[in-house]
Amino acid sequence: MNDQPVILIPARLASTRLPRKPLADIAGLPMIVQVWHRAMEADCGRVVVAAAETEIVDAVISAGGEAVLTDPDLPSGSDRIHQALELIDADGAHRRIVNLQGDLPTLDPSLIQRVLDVLGDNDMSTLVAEIVEAGERDDPNVVKAIVSLQTATSGHALYFTRATAPTGDGPLYHHIGIYAYQRAALADFVSRPPSVLEQRERLEQLRALEAGMRIGVACVDTVPVGVDTPQDLELANRIMTGHSGPKGS
Fold first, then answer.
1. What global pTM score does this model have?
2. What percent helix, strand, coil does the chain show, rounded to 5?
3. Which class in CATH covers the domain with range 1-105+225-249?
4. Which of 164-201 are b and which e, b meaning 16 or more Cβ less than 10 Å from the residue's Cβ?
5. Residue 83: helix, strand or coil by DSSP?
6. Residues 65-85, buried b or exposed e (16+ Cβ, 10 A)?
7. Model confidence over 41-59: pLDDT tens digits?
């Protein structure tokens, strides 16, 4: 077995709000290449883009990266990384898998190590950050994580919701969509149909909680900009202007 994790980045061109999103230019490079750079900078293990189209594969390979073509009809990023994992590591050598969304070009690379640190013997792990902007508290596009903290910065997830929760005094936590999985847990997760709460909240991670999986959580102090709209793209471009590539590139 190989204790080194593999970081998988799912990407597809079929985005409704920002067409051909993975290939959108950010600071002179396709967005998916910028995300690959951030993953390489983390220096945590092998990095592979799980692409739905050959154009994405070609862009990553042209930048010196590794990419694999997956079925374009797969229903989710989790299904895409699972198929990619079976293609690149059929023998099951890698035991820990990171699912890094392909629309986080401003990601602090250290967050990848943080999500691996909190995986431990949990089935999965993810990240949260305390909400500091008042407008995010009631914004349904900001997913809230309800967490039980065992220390000041780590614990486990109880629920995820688009509602403003929990009630009462105390912090609310913004969920950051980066996950680490035990390999067996990922296989179990994608084998299950969408759950009732998953479909109601439109949050895939609820499938894991309804199945009884334990999700470790680390609380961090930085939230990467997710690029879903032309406005997000403009913001990411401003942030990324002048950002260097991976070490040694």
1. 0.92
2. 30, 25, 45
3. alpha beta
4. eebeeeeebbbbbbbbbbbbebbeebbeeeebebbeeb
5. helix
6. bebbbbeeebeebbbbbbbbb
7. 999 999 999 999 999 999 9
| DSSP codes joined into one string, 199-214 | HHHT-THHHHHHTT--
Contact between residue 165 and residue 212 where contact means Cβ atoms under 8 Å apart: no
Contact 51, 67 (CB under 8 A): yes
Rounded to whole angstroms, the Cα distance separating 134 from 188 reads: 37
At 107-127, the pLDDT tens digits run 999 999 999 999 999 999 999
| Domain locations in the chain as residue ranges | 1-105+225-249, 108-176+194-223
Q: Is the peptide bond before 30 cis (omega within 30 degrees of 0)?
A: no
Interhelix angle 31-42/230-240, rounded to 10 degrees, is: 50
